[in-house]
Automatic annotation (TrEMBL):
Domain CBS per the UniProt entry, residue ranges: 6-66, 75-134
InterPro entries with a match to the protein in the record: CBS_dom, CBS_dom_sf, CBSX3_CBS_dom, Diverse_CBS-Domain
Keywords: CBS domain
Protein's recorded name: CBS domain-containing protein
SMART domains: CBS (SM00116)
Gene3D superfamilies (UniProt xref): CBS-domain
Pfam families (alphabetical): CBS
CDD domains: CBS_pair_bac_euk (cd04623)
Amino acid sequence: MRVSDILKVKGNTLYTVTPETSLHDAVNTMAEHDIGSLVVMEYGDLVGMLTFREIILTLRTNGGSVGTTTIRKVMDDHPITCTPETEVDEVRRMMLEHHVRYLPVMESRSLMGVISFYDVAKAVVEAQGFENKLLKAYIRDWPEEEQHSGR
């Protein structure tokens, strides 16, 4: 299974912000849309990711307030990415190795979507469920062996 398969099921709704967006506005957007990340774009290029991890670190640093900080000051400015052709097993390895929950999907310099750890887990569980159904159907329809007489 490839990332493109996950994106087909997930849909193509994307939430992006600029580096100059206030962190306060970003938090409101994330809460309003029940999302855990925002892609930070500038002049059509991916320049960062904002996730709840960066927000929590900012809250800790600022005594529980996001203040007037802009996204540029707190974003991950070197997010790892994948492509639509990346295999899901590779994405799982990347997410675990780099301790990230969200990966922008890039094709050349174009943002195709974002996949989350949840999206990957859901796709894997659904694929395993489908395989299990096929195996059970195969076993259920297993041809009976011919009875051999002892003559």
